Amino acid sequence: MSTQGQHHAPPPVPNMSGAHVKRKPLHLFVQICALNEEETIGKVIHDIPRHLDGIASVHVVVVNDGSTDKTVQVATNAGADIVISHHANKGIARAFQTGIDTCLSYGADIIVHTDADGQYEAADIGKLVQPIIEQRADIVIGDRQTQKMSHFSPAKRLFQWLGSRVVQAAAGLDVPDAVSGFRAYSRDAALHIYPTALFSYTVQTLIQAGKLGLAVLYVPIRAYETPRPSRLHKGMLHFMSQQATILMRTYTTYEPLKTFLVLAAPFLVFGTVLVIRLIVLAAEQGGQFIGRIQSLVAGMVSLVIGLLLVITGIIADRIRENRRLIEDTLYRIREQSTNRYSVADLDAPAHDESVAETQAAAGADSRVIPLPASGAPDTHA
After folding, report:
1. pLDDT at residue 294, as a whole number
2. SS3 category, 169
3. Cut 0.70: pTM above it
4. CATH number of the structural domain spanning residue 216
């Protein structure tokens, strides 16, 4: 779908001397991951603003995550510029990364992720991307203000609050709504983050952002009740357990030494107290340990476990250093491999060519719609 029309140029920014330098046009891509959303995705796409201050163009990318209904057809008719389909349902995290890779391959400067169920107000996209346009943030999270959402039960509001506080502490970020899916990413942030969890990307990418030193802000947004059951989880307990597992794994990945020292501390303290107590008692009884062998064994075993955990933490910390090098290498590779296509390709006429060349752009598990003459995915399914 063409997005030609009147666009607002991004505001000039001052350089080191104070003079204003004209900023290059910014291209915004809005990605939507969908699974059997034929009833809502049309309105979601239609409501996305195509003209925003500071943005040269707005394009919509839909990742069809194995839908069996008319999601693709409805999305295309509603004006989606790119529709990519997974052969089978891969989960929201995989679909999210497919969308990110596709947007980057077309030279996206800002990527907004929103849901296909109409939970988020599309008119708030302008508010969401403004801190990135002004170069104040790398990632902006839409805060649903869950404590004010009447359709959330008191228990759900409490757990949302507690969960977000735990994620804030783990990531070192001030984000009151950690699991909000309404987010904006700068190009640099999108190149840095890479979720590996299969359940969801929200918590993991926040911790990644915090540990990588990305600037993360939040803005209040409007959110609405979605009457259908969630397709992500089977209930509150399932959601909480999955997110807690992701949080622990991700935090341990980035802070292994700290994690293992915390685990080792109780064993070291318990073992040390037992051994010191036995030494004092033995000194009072002329060096005899009679009757206290069990305490001696328990104390020594506890100390050994604690020391093993410390050693494991040191080894894991060295592995973490290698991970930093791998992450930097991945960033450079992704940076060099993006911009394979351009925004102009989205307006090129489509024709029937092999889609094999574009499989890498969307992932091996994805089916890319036919290529236009320039070699980019077609804008219609």
Report:
1. 80
2. helix
3. yes
4. 3.90.550.10
